[in-house]
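Hey Z.,

So I finally got round to the adenosine-5'-triphosphate thing we talked about over coffee. Here's the setup:
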Amino acid sequence: MSIYLLQIVNGIGIGMLYFLMAVGLSIVFGLLGFVNFAHGAFFLIGAYVCFQAVDMGLNFWWTLLLAPLLVGAFAWVAEKALLRHIYQLPHEFHIIFTVGVALVLQEAVILQWGALGQNVAPPSELQGVFILGDFVYPTYRLFVIGFTAAMALLLWWLLDGTRLGAIVRAGSESTEMVSLLGLNINRVFSLVFALGALTAGLAGVLAAPIRGVEPFMGVEALGIAFVAVVVGGMGSFWGALAGGLLVGIVQSLMSTIWPEGARLMIYVAMAAVMLLRPNGLFGRT
Amino acid sequence: MTAPILSARNIVKRYGKFTAVNGVSIDIMPGTVHSVIGPNGAGKTTLFHSLTGTVPITEGNILLDGEEVGHLPDYRRVLKGIARSFQVTSLFLNLSVRENLRLAAQGRHPGQAFRLWRDAESLTAACDTAEALLERLNLAAVASRPAGELSHGQQRRLEVGMAMAGRPKVIFLDEPTSGMGIDDIGEMKRLIHGLRNECAVVLIEHNMDIVMDISDRITVMQLGQVLVEARPDEIRNDERVRRAYLGGMITGGAA
Amino acid sequence: MILEVREVHAYYGKSHILQGVSLEVGPGELVTLLGRNGAGKTTTLKTIVGVVAPRGGSIRFMGKDIAGLPAYRIAAGGICLVPEHRGIFRLLSVEENLTMAARKDSPWQLDDVYRIFPRLKERRKNGGSQLSGGEQQMLAIGRALMTHPKVLMLDEPVEGLAPVIVEEIVAQLTQIKKAGMPIILVEQNLAVCTQLGDRHYIIEQGRIVHCAGNAEFLADDSIKDRYLGVNVSTPTPQADHK
Amino acid sequence: MKILKTYRYLLLALAVVLLLPATLSSASLATEVLIFALAALGCNLLLGYTGLMSFGQGIFLGLGSYAAGLALLHLKAPLLAALLLAMLAGALAALVVGWFSIRQRGVYFVMLTLAFAQMFYFLAYTLKNITGGDNGLLNIPRPQLSLLGATLMPTATPWQYYGVVAVLFLIAFALLQRIADSVFGRTLLAIRDNEARAAAIGYNIKSFKLIAFVISGAVTGLAGALHAMLTGIAPLSNIEYHASESILIMTVLGGTGNLFASVLGAAFYVLVGDWLSTLWPRWLMLLGLLLIAVSLYMQKGLWGLGMRLAGIVRPGHGDQPPAALKEGGKQ
Amino acid sequence: DAIQFGCAVPMSGAFAANGKFADMGMKLAIDKYGKVLGKSASYTVIDTEGKPATAIRKVQEAQQKGTRFFLGGFLSSEALAIGKEVDKAGGVCITTAGADELTGSECNRSTFRWSVPTYGAIEQTVRPLIEKLPKAKRWYTITPQYVFGEGLLSAAKAVFQEKGIEHVGNSYHSLAEKEFSGYLTNAIAAKPDVLLLLNFSTQSSDTLRQAVSFGMKKNMTIVMAWASGLEQFESLGADLCEDVYFGAQYWHAIDAPFNKEFVKLANTAFKEDPNYSLAGSFICTKIVLDAIAKANSTDPKAVIAAMEGMKYEGLTGTEEIRKGDHQVIKNYYLLKGKGKSKMRNKTDFADIISSGKSFLPLEKTQCKMS
Ligand SMILES: Nc1ncnc2c1ncn2[C@@H]1O[C@H](COP(=O)(O)OP(=O)(O)OP(=O)(O)O)[C@@H](O)[C@H]1O
Ligand SMILES: Nc1ncnc2c1ncn2[C@@H]1O[C@H](COP(=O)(O)OP(=O)(O)OP(=O)(O)O)[C@@H](O)[C@H]1O
Ligand SMILES: [Mg+2]
Ligand SMILES: [Mg+2]
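And the result:
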């Protein structure tokens, strides 16, 4: 198999994780009209909960279930207690607020677990590598691709096929009008925010065995997720998928073609997309 | 025969596959009130958008005073002498009523607005226009209040004032009386009628009292096309128009 | 009484807008609320439904005090407001707009709405942002009906509508009223009001200054003159046709 | 009295300039306050007056640093020339970034500027022959402030340099204040409020936004150049995401109602940040809490807080409750 | 009046952990040796936030308040910047950072460096390994693209050439990179015998972790030329480190008299074995304190003169400060990770395979001290 093909497959593997990170951002971002700079912190917490649980001897599979729920519950509470006061404010306060939350969580992680990174071993069933000719790929990463694909289907159904999805979109335009129709928009907001956080937490758990955990992984993941969302189009589920995959594949291919510029090329690719389709690949015009 | 001040030929506007305006031609004569009526969704507002440049036209030509303006963006058409009000009120809600009007008056000379050193108040022409309009629109009492605090009716008046402030050659008013108090409608009607002396007026209105009373010409639109264009008395008696639009005429409010 | 509003006050910031508004709606009754621009009609409706918080006074809906409840609780309880600006969701298709808050127990289901407003059926897949003003109004009313309201409050529902559509909507409102739905109608169009209304309230400067049955109201031109500024004798300028 | 009113913000800025040396023992800290105040002013012109939330101000700061650094290092340029060059670099970059970004609104705009910030960062990182890459541009000299060969102000000691920065800061502040109060500034406010209407009454929105962007870029470039001379290096961190973020935070912290608020915001951010970092290594947590508090309880920023404390209500700025509404409201 | 030290290290930001240990190291040294010339030394921590500009501004501030002696930075960029700034005001700055310029092209009177330059790091890891693994002929490198990485890479290439090793490929990556699977895919495709990692800190940890997940430990040898020592082993865990080679500036098990003393000191003070950041900060502080005593003055000029050529018993045995470039001449170590089962205690992650001193001759360092 040619190296480029290998890199594309690898890029899909990276990209699916980016997608999972981006999709939550995109829902909260596009549908609630809310810019969540704390999204990376949910990823971070997901990863650290996973680390802590595995460290205490809990099975990874249980962690995969529990950690995202925990992060989601945490976000639910945070939304109810704090966030709801700032939805009505202009963007700048969303950003300032969530940057603040991200800082607090990041520093809290350092207080609790220290600034040094830690390792998380993949579950023993998935520790091997998958070999097909020249193609060597960690089994765990294969699992991540499959698992995130299943999650993608689930999310898509939830957002596009259910009434909840419609209500959320409506709420992003006018909360007052939604209330006037007798719907408790606040509960929907909490739910969606928690859902977004949950996907980020899930991404964190999945990433931990690949990346290990360290307190600044959230910021980095957030940066990439932003690019994926902008490329794909805000608020669009398919956009998050396309954006995540595109970023992953560009990054992976570039590490063969022009490694020192791999990062730069992600942004160049984004600029190119923005030029041709200002609202992103799947953005509303 | 005087030449039309504005002459639009075969205007087509498509939104994606949907054709909202389909080959409309219209001539606006100076010093007249020209109304556009038609059922909801007939494409009246879209026609306005096309003529004033709010949206780019898909096909067609627009001659203003003999000059082609069809390809210009909206802000450039203002300089040529086109001004409009919106069907859905669109104001500077955080700025005072006076400032709203001053900005609108200033817009006729936007080059001045690039002066990084001049005080706005030192450009007195725009300020004077604004003051005069405050009186004329009966908004002097609320001149210093942010426009967002006005009632709907007051906002509608200001909306029309914003178009007037540009001292246009042709003014496009999209349902100026919608949401206005019954008492104000007569006032607005007189105002619009009086505007004729300053510029040509193109009016979209559902209030048939106004339309029938003050229009010189009426264009009836349906399904994106012109159904008829004629004098009010002819329109009133046109069977097609009755069927498509007027019906029993319970609209009309008070008088 | 279905709805009883007693001496309600409301404020925007410090400004005292409603200064003791009282009105009531009985079963199956259509009352109108008339008044000049800025008199407080919209504010009254918003206060009833809880968008503006009432201060002082009481609002009783089917025997329960609802003053101070959040808007969604009041709306879910059956008071449905179709606001001045219609509140169409631009990001949702026509059909999504209709169904998003629909109740299965509502007497008006999707098919009923499409029957009343065939135009909506034609544009069912369109985004809310692509509708004309009239289409939006139809959609707003249709959507309200699908939420199974027990009292319908309409804020200037025929504003900006073509006469034929107005006729249609009036006819439809008559139907709705006949079905026993209590309605509060805010409207500038007197013809519409007198055609539909059982009783009329006139509000001025945040106070109800007059209340009359339909017949009495129709008969008394001086009331209209005094509170609504409808001067029947004012001459209107005639267009000089060349 | 009238003069006092016209120049009240300039006088306040002057007060800050005089107060800093009186209260701080470190000239570097005082200088940094003024430099970041300049950057925040540039950001405020966009956010407060044009409604554009730029997450890319670090681009102009960084480019200003590099431009001045390169001019001073390789061309042995005099101070003023280096500053002008930096402003030009900032303005040009703003023209490019602005031209692309203002085609978008709201969140998209924010994201675009953020992406540009990343792109410029990696560009600077990749072009290490010019920028020094991760090490940054080292050994940047700090010439005296001279014009036509005559020395106007020395810059050798930290306080002398503070003097130069203070003078430049006051000039820039006065100019920006003038611009904000001018017809141009008033038009920006209108565009911020309602773009569709502004276009419909004859304003070319894009040009106004672009000009605001260019002015902002130039001012921020100036700040970058002064910063490079303060520290003697043009580091990669000036063009980083964090620089953009800090500038934005300062601006919002100060408040976007008027320009002077940004000076407060910058002073607060720099001084409190400096102080907190000596208290507790996890001081970023305190900063985070502060940001949360600001967005929850202090949306008018420090300026608004000050106003509320002073009980002063300024007319015509919409931050007072609509009193007297009843009398004016009815006709 | 006290002798003021400034500990300018990142306390917040991505390298906060190193800052914390540096703080501890300086505290230990000052507590133990802080009484000189009848005065007592004290220190303040200066949080550089990992940003050179912030570092400079805060160092300026400290200098304006009278501090003359600095432990300068952990990252190359901030160390360089601090060194320059201290030199301007005529103080003393000693650092453990990686940038060769510190004692090379950007060297100056005030700046001293304890850590071995990239040349020595490669000489003491790549060269002994080539001898140990005669069958390993194909090497692949992964390099961060900045001066430090280039330094390691060019030193490695020189050794490869000399020893007839085939350099089958190199992947550059940026300093912001966290995802190395793409580069590892490249490396696997090149079928090397040895994978040489030339990045450091979290990046090298990430690379190693991902390389292991790609099964690379099974069919090639992995070498990390510039490991950060104990803290890196702790964050990676023994399983990942097993059979991997690491180059290190310091290891707590070094068999040198003063190191034993120091480890004991650290054990009593912190109940843990010292890592590189702690040790580096400790010994740097001690060097300056010793020099002050030797110079019998707190005048930086005199202290610098005393430091130049100073020979002392250090953590790696006898160390000497080379006068010409202010480089400390000391050992660099090659470690080999061992499995969990073989560890005798919780910090016994690796055995020292070899050690030695390799430094470019003065003429080749490009250092021109004014
Ligand atoms: N942005 C758009 N995209 C797609 N279709 C649109 C868009 N704007 C308007 N339309 C469609 O174009 C048609 C004409 O709309 P327009 O607003 O011009 O009608 P109108 O005659 O002004 O009606 P009304 O009297 O109700 O205001 C409508 O069917 C509307 O749905
Ligand atoms: N959001 C607001 N903030 C402050 N004042 C407001 C606000 N909305 C309305 N008002 C004021 O409250 C008063 C009553 O407004 P309201 O909208 O209830 O009038 P209305 O009777 O519905 O008028 P219209 O016929 O014009 O719709 C007006 O004087 C208006 O200026
Ligand atoms: Mg219309
Ligand atoms: Mg109203």
